[in-house]
Amino acid sequence: MLTVYGDIRSGNCLKVKWLLEWLGRDYRWIETDVTTGVTRSPQFLALNSAGQTPTIVLEDGRPLAQSNAILVHMGEGTALIPTDAYDRARMFEWLFWEQYSHEPCIAVVRFQRAIAGRPREDIDPRLIEKGHAALARMEAGLSGRDWLAGEAVSLADLALVAYTRVAHEGDFDLTPYANVRAWVARVEAAFGIA
Fold first, then answer.
1. Closest Cα partner for 98 from 77, 122, 71, 75?
2. Which of 22, 58, 117, 154 has its CA 20 to 30 A from that of 68?
3. What is the pLDDT of residues 84-131, one digit of tens each?
């Protein structure tokens, strides 16, 4: 059976969980609290030398890490990966951007505020600024369209909804981002995310 090592508080882990549930895949979830140091244990590092969640172990015993790599692997052959070459490339563009320009701001601030309990004044203001720039880019990218890449929901939407939907936990108010708010609702409905 497929095994997922994940921290349920992590959007990166949740997007893998949501995809597996959408696919109807059987899997075993092993809750892996990243704040305890368990991901630095020799046993975990043998699976993922980067010491990060999510990490999956495929049915044949091979491990795979990095949330978006897992999404692409598990989503192979589904409608979540566009067949049109340009739309597929746009999906990858958003997947790469999510890990480079969105997650390092939105997710980090959310973690510091909601999980680590740091006061807002202790958060690097550049992270807040970059987070709003990321949301503004999404707002523009969703202008006149329902999905980020192509004419249907894709892995790009799943990857980006994970932390966008909880951005308010990092004090990112989504009120000015009407396109983003409507898109979050569409993606949640498409994947049955409560």
1. 71
2. 117
3. 999 999 999 999 999 999 999 999 999 999 999 999 999 999 999 999
Residues in a beta bridge with 57: 3, 63
Q: Order of strands, edge to edge, in the sheet holding 27-31?
A: 27-31, 2-6, 55-57, 63-65
Tell me which residue of 57, 83, 86 sits closest to 70, measured CA to CA. 57
Spatial contact of 18 and 11, defined as CB atoms under 8 Å apart: no
Nearest to 128 by CA among 167, 162, 89, 100: 167
The pLDDT of residue 4 is: 98
Q: What global pTM score does this model have?
A: 0.95
Give the 3-state secondary structure of the chain.
CEEEEECCCCHHHHHHHHHHHHHCCCEEEEECCHHHCHHHCHHHHHHCCCCCCCEEECCCCCEEECHHHHHHHHHCCCCCCCCCHHHHHHHHHHHHHHHHHHHHHHHHHHHHHHHCCCCHHHCCHHHHHHHHHHHHHHHHHCCCCCCCCCCCCCHHHHHHHHHHCCHHHHCCCCCCCHHHHHHHHHHHHHHCCC
Nearest to 80 by CA among 37, 140, 20: 20
Dist. CA 189–CA 57, nearest whole Å: 28
